[in-house]
Design brief:
Length: 138
């Protein structure tokens, strides 16, 4: 009986894990930080963001991330700075490798849907992003 339970539990665990490749389709677009979870479980909410992240990934799984500042007229202000990125599936995880002239680092995508993006960095900070929706002022 114990073996049957163990096999059933393992089957449920492995059937619920997401295929990292399916997460890639949701990465492109404008994202804003909603909250950050620290390694001790403490959460910090972000009620206002003056910048958002724009991710652009092409078919070769390379691209860039840029910081964008939304304007009231629906346009964006930005600099020429961008972080080059490469998407790599390793050990059943979806990793984003970033590179700038000054640094290189890796983040792991824990989940990605049409509306949310969950990323963990090397310091074990977990960033919850929500899809950016522009303010409509009438």
């Amino acid at each position: 009986m114990r073996k049957v339970f163990l096999l059933l539990a393992l089957g449920i665990i492995f059937s619920c894990s997401k295929d990292p490749e399916t997460l890639i389709t949701h990465l492109n677009g404008y994202w804003e930080i909603d909250e950050v979870t620290l390694p001790d479980g403490t959460k910090r909410d972000y009620n206002y963001n003056d910048t958002i992240d724009f991710l652009s990934i092409n078919d070769s799984l390379t691209g860039f991330r840029k910081k964008m500042k939304p304007n009231f007229d629906g346009s964006f202000s930005t600099s020429n700075d961008a972080e080059a990125l490469k998407i790599v599936i390793e050990n059943d995880s979806l990793n984003i490798y970033y590179k700038t002239p000054y640094s290189e680092w890796k983040e792991t995508v824990l989940d990605a849907t049409e509306d949310k993006l969950l990323i963990q960095n090397k310091d074990k900070l977990i960033y919850l992003y929500k899809r950016y929706e522009p303010l409509v002022i009438e």
